[in-house]
Amino acid sequence: MRIRSLAIAAALLIGTGLPTIVQAQSPKTIAGGFDVGPGGLPKNFNPLISTGGFTWLSTYYEPLLLWNAGLTELEGALAKDYKVSDDKLTYTFNLAEETWHDGKPFTSKDVKFTFELAKNKASGSLFAARLGDIASVEAPDDRTVMIKLSKPNGSFLSIISQVLILPEHALASIAPESLANSTWWSTTPVGTGPFKFNRYVTDQYVELAADDDYRGGKPKVDVLINRYFENPAAAVAALRAGEIQFTYVEPDDAASFKTDANFSVIEGDSYVVNYIGLNQKVELFKDLKVRQAIMYAIDRNAIIESLYGGAAKPANCGYVAPHLIPEGLDAYAYDPAKAKALLDEAGWANINGDKPITLLTYYGSPQAANVMAAVQSMLAQVGINVVPRVVDTPTYNGIVYKEGTPDWNEFAMVYAGLQNGPNPAGLNPGLNKSQIPPDGFNTMRIEFDGLSAAFDKALGETDASKLDAAWQDVCKAMNAELPWATLWVANRYGIASTRLKDFVWTPAPAGGPYAAHPERWDIQ
Questions:
Q1: Is residue 226 part of a domain?
Q2: Domain that holds residue 361
Q3: Cα 126 to chain center, whole Å?
Q4: Position 323 in a domain
Q5: How many angstroms separate the first and last alpha carbons of the chain?
Q6: Across residues 229-257, what is the average pLDDT?
Q7: What is the mean pLDDT of the chain?
Q8: Which of 372, 381, 384 is nearest to 287 (CA)?
Q9: Across the strands, what pairs with 416?
Q10: pLDDT reading at 39 higher than 80
Q11: Is residue 443 assigned to a domain?
Q12: Any domain includes 376
């Protein structure tokens, strides 16, 4: 058995030990539950509106740049290289030679089309606000793209690592407002990645076929299959039965594989902060004292030890990386008596009393259910009555991203997660007042001036020597203003069959994308 613990999120390359000898498959196939767990869903096909699942989507689509598997630096994908002007306003990309899966040439026009589409709110794109600094996209020739910004943005390259490039020739004829619900994504999509779309069997699996002409080399397996499961337990059962060779798992399941020589356990930082979101469009959480009371009422350390087996770190802002944590943060140590006193000072009995408050989540695992039950019990002890409600991810997104004036009582509180690295700007879409839907992920409709100003300053900082201090200011603002009740950053686990060779999976934020090089994956 091989177990590798990754302190900063790194990749595990499997197949370096003695392989299990099995009869060769024809065609050679790798199947996995690549989207099992938070963020994964059977209808996750459009990368412009996806909130996760990029690990899978990036097997057939590609961005210009993406993080390496260790999440330490960005490297080229569809862009071979790039340069940045001295004023940090112009990014020039030199594009790779590639063809779309339907044989059409990939050119700079596709990149221009994609970014303009991603900036267009009518398309339903969740990148609209994050790409708001783009002033223009120019395609002076087929192999060159120039993106000009209206102001410096030190996180720009990391932001575009999740913008998967789309084919102009296939999508330009579809009106942007019709794209979100188009059947193209799940029937005839074409990308530039090492595998090409073959078929989707509704709610069961997606099958990809190797692109023999891929610029990175012909894939070593013929077929890649992503199976969908209602819950992690079903995926684990399929893994043990040999139906799949990889899946994301919960910590308890990971422990059960530690003594099984047929599997390798991949463990690493999820880079996702879990939090209780407090909707600022309802009166319940307007008073800072109420938000502070919620923090003091939840015994985070007890939950981490009992339900996570210690494999998580308490978060007193959106970050846990040491270089982003300033001194002097309030630790909000468990203190139910203080929580009750704060609620009394805020007049909680008159604001809400013991009326039930829905605690909405898309986390449907047994572990998440236990976490929700623990939070419910702890809050009840100080006089806050919450009732957990679990829905699938599409239903959750439909509720929290709804424009106009939705029924705020549907999600006065949420239990959710958002990536906090490797680029700390990943939290900006969930907290900056400029990122309220449909522009970004700020589903709690948080409009705290100090916090937004801290984000804007950090995003505009291009002096590397000042970046850490700028993000520490964001952390200070989160800790003081409490837009969320931040909980912890947990480890994430994957289980891979030892039959796999050169397989890479990183417990990455929002499922990637990162340089996993699926064209190199093999199975024995």
A1: no
A2: 271-491
A3: 12
A4: yes
A5: 17
A6: 90
A7: 89
A8: 384
A9: 275
A10: no
A11: yes
A12: yes
CA–CA gap between residue 489 and residue 274 (Å, rounded): 6
Where helices occur in 22-149 by DSSP H, the ranges are 54-57, 108-119
Amino acid at 507: P
Supply 70's token pair. Answer: 């260790």
CATH, residue 373: 3.10.105.10
Answer whether residue 323 shows pLDDT above 50: yes
Q: Which residues pair with 75 in a beta bridge?
A: 66
Tell me 364's DSSP state: -
Contacts of 313 (CB under 8 A, 6+ apart): 304, 320, 488, 489
Tokens of residue 522, six digits: 């093999």
Half-sphere exposure of residue 270, counting CA atoms within 13 Å on the CB side? Answer: 26
pLDDT computed for residue 397 by the predictor: 85
The torsion region of residue 332 among left (phi > 0), alpha (psi -120 to 50) and beta comes to left
Cα gap 149→91, rounded to integer Å: 8
Number of independent structural domains in the chain: 1
What are the Cα distances from residue 344, in Å, to 13, 281, 350?
55, 22, 10
Tell me the two tokens of residue 238: 């399929």
Q: What is the pTM of this model?
A: 0.84
CA angle centred on 255, ends 252 and 257, rounded to 5°: 120
User: Residue 275: which of 108, 438, 444 has the closest Cα?
Assistant: 444
Query: What are the beta bridge partners of residue 278?
Result: 413
